Amino acid sequence: MFELFCNVLLVVFLGYTYFTHVLEAKIPKSYLKNPNNLMPDVWPKLIIILLMICLIANIVKIILKNKNNKDFNLKTFGKNSWEFLKSKMFLGMVVLAAAAFVLEYLGFVVTAFLVLFFYGMLLGEKKIWRLLIVSVVLAFVLHLLFCGLLDVNLPRGEVPFLRNMALFLESLV
Amino acid sequence: MSFGEMFVSGLSAVFAGGQFLMVILAIVLGTIFGALPGVSATMAVALGLTFTYTMGPVPAIVFLTAIYCSSITGGSITAILFKIPGVPSSAPTTFDGYPMAQRGEAGKALGIALLASAVGGLFSAIVMFAMASPLAKAALAFGQGDLFAITFLGLSILSVLDMDHILTTIISGLIGLLLACIGQDPQAGVTRLTFGSRELMAGVDMIPVLIGLFAVTEVLKQTNAKKRLSAQDGVGGTNGKVSTKMPSLKEVWGVKWTLLRCSVVGTVIGILPGAGATIASFMCYTMENKLSKYPEKFGTGIIDGIAASEASNNAATGGAMVPLLCLGIPGGNAAAVMASALALKGVQMGPLLLTNQPEYLSATFITMIVTNILMVIVAMGIAKVFAQILAIPYFYLGPIIIMLAVIGSYSEGAAIGVFIMVLAGALGIAVKYMHLNSAAIVLGLVLGRMCEEHFSRAYVMNRANVFQALFGTPIAAIVMSACILMLLSPLYLPLLKKLTGKKAKAN
Question: How many structural domains comprise chain A?
Fold first, then answer.
């Protein structure tokens, strides 16, 4: 049922995209002057149409395949969806999304510490103190290695204290 | 300069003074960069550039070429041990390398990967050294229609990537193509499918998508798994110690034709401007699957799959240097960084390079030969270090992989890269439940923009005549016919099988 739901959702989304977001700005007049130019909307529209045809064919295929499946109903789908929302995998996705949101504000060191700590807990580490120490050390090591040694561009954070801490760490190398 | 003079000039460039030690250092650095999840071959060359600011042009070329070649091989280490392709072209290596590692055969998988890399790399370097001049002349004659046909050939592979699930594979490929449309269109510069996001105007960066689809999805899956991957489970009870023993002579002999075919195809694909190591590895993996006597075993952990992927992607690096040096056209992101690095050192890339600065060309190809030989020994040692990482409990290793993924995604394009990585990770989970194909999504994303660019140029040049744009030249006509045959294969192959089956029964 999840597969069917995703396919239907994709068809609706693609339909909306086709009419509203394929072109988001006017085509320059100079470009329109040449009648031989390929218009910018042709390629994505062609892909969307092909994709919608394939998705509809897939929807029909899924329905036919599950014709006699007793679990193929909305009630089971609702139950499974609730199970998914309670799963560690979904919590992991939430941790990652939260990390993406706070990364630039808190900086790499703090974000790395938070991800290492909370994801470690999620994966089953029960010795919290050990996890806490390892997370702090790893966050510092990763920042030193990539930002200090390899000169990889990483965010230092917008909070002055955290920014100074990141700069201090980089100055150690 | 004659062939012999170029050879001697190249050897003196690599072995003069302390240059040989620099080559070894570059190989170590390149392999480590390539193996580090989130540090792509592009980043490896970019990072290597910082070491060359004080070097002369020839030592700089030697150093960067060694990093470029070894980073492609380094990518296979993490692809096998962690199912994280260090570089996009190592993605097909995960298909068979990771199942082998899970079975406790990580050593054998690494051994065949390194050997295949060396064979592919050496083959292409030697062929390219001999053929650089005539191939450059031929490549100059390529039109936009030919380039579109070659790129479209890469897309046509989708139809044979997973024949049992053809519809979902095509859907996956089309999703990849649509993702490639996001941002400004290549001709008019009009924004498309950004949904108002400024960050998406430059398009979807490939690296965060790849990292998300391959690395993040795997960690998310492990989060839910009842029995998680650990050193003991992961490498077959070896306590994280992976012996990088070479495969036996019998095993190597068994894949001799795979190595030869993929080295040839990889070299040819590499030399084509626009195509590169990623297309080569996907194409050769599929080709070997089709040619194999046991295609059902592909993806379950056999050395043929690893040999196909690694021989071809390393062969393509040799090929990719030809359009870069002889035409000034970079084949991909890493080659683009190489181009800017070489330009910084005063290398005038283009057809005149052979006449004006032949020592640069010879230094490049001899470095490639030396690097591909030394790489096997160096990568063995590095692989052993990386194998120790598996001894770390997964509740530490998983979050570390996530943070390396964050680093790789952020350094490519600010915070939006991390958001894309997270979305791609979630997409990877959806792909699993929807029975879609991640490899097809990646292939669509990699080739989408290239395909559209070449087609729109061919369309304009042929005055909006679609037929002429697609079949206008002999090369385009042959390649497009091959594409059509490939695309229609899911329709006629079952019919052919039925017919041959009936005939066999009748006999």
Answer: 2
Shared-domain flag, residues A127 and A67: no
Amino acid, single-letter form, for residue B282: F
One-letter amino acid for residue B373 of the chain: I
- How much is the pTM? 0.70
B8 in helix, strand or coil?
helix
- Report yes or no: B70 and B30 within 8 Å, Cβ to Cβ: yes
> Are both A68 and A126 inside the same structural domain?
no
Neighbours of B86 (CB within 10 A): 30
From the candidates A42, A47, A125, A132, which should be mutated to test the interface with B, based on the most B CB atoms within 10 A?
A: A47
**Is B168 within 8 Å of A58 when comparing Cβ atoms?**
yes
Check if the beta carbon of residue B274 is closer than 8 Å to that of residue B151: yes
Residues 6+ apart with CB under 8 A from A151: B47, B50
Q: What is the pLDDT of residues B84-106, one digit of tens each?
A: 776 777 888 888 888 888 777 87
Residue of B nearest to A58 (CA): B167
Of B30, B82, B105, residue with least CA distance to B404: B82
Residues in chain A, total: 173
Indicate the SS3 state at residue B346.
Answer: coil
Say what the pLDDT of residue B272 is. Answer: 65
Nearest to A14 by CA among B171, B480, B291: B171
Same domain? A132 vs A162:
yes
Question: Between residues B178 and B269, which one has the greater pLDDT?
Answer: B178
Domain housing A33: 2-83
> Are residues B47 and B74 in contact, defined by beta-carbon separation less than 8 angstroms?
no
Domain shared by A167 and A99, yes or no:
yes
Residue with tokens 């592919």: B120
Within 10 angstroms of residue A49's Cβ, the number of other Cβ atoms is 13
| Phi, psi of B226, rounded to the nearest 5 degrees | -70, -45
Q: Per 3-state DSSP, what percentage of chain B is helix, strand, and coil (rounded to 5)?
A: 80, 0, 20
Instruction: Look at the block and give the residue holding tokens 């997270």.
Output: B422
Tell whether A79 and A133 lie within a shared domain: no
CB B334 within 8 A of CB B40: yes
A92 and A67 together in one domain = no
pLDDT of residue B422 exceeding 80, the answer is: yes
| Residues B400/B44, Cβ–Cβ less than 8 Å | no
Chain B hits for A152, CB-CB cut-off 8 Å, are 43, 47, 407, 411
Q: Looking at the complex, does the CB of residue B227 fall below 8 Å from at least one CB of chain A? A: no
Enter the ipTM: 0.90
What is B116-175 written as a DSSP string? HHHHHHHHHHHHHHHHHHHHHHHHHT--HHHHHHHHHHHHHTHHHH-GGGHHHHHHHHHH
CB-based contact (8 Å) between B250 and chain A? Answer: no
In angstroms, the CA B317 to CA B340 distance is 17
State whether A92 and B219 contact (CB < 8 Å): yes
Report the distance separating Cα B465 and Cα B485, nearest Å.
22
User: Based on the domain organization, do A7 and A48 belong to the same domain?
Assistant: yes
Q: Please enumerate, as own/partner, the contacts of B202-205 that have beta carbons within 8 Å and a separation of 24 or more.
A: B202/B413, B203/B449, B204/B179, B204/B180, B204/B420, B204/B445, B205/B409, B205/B412, B205/B413, B205/B416, B205/B417, B205/B420
Q: Are residues A76 and A40 in the same domain?
A: yes
| Domains of chain B, residue spans | 3-506
Minimal CA separation from B412 to chain A, in Å:
9
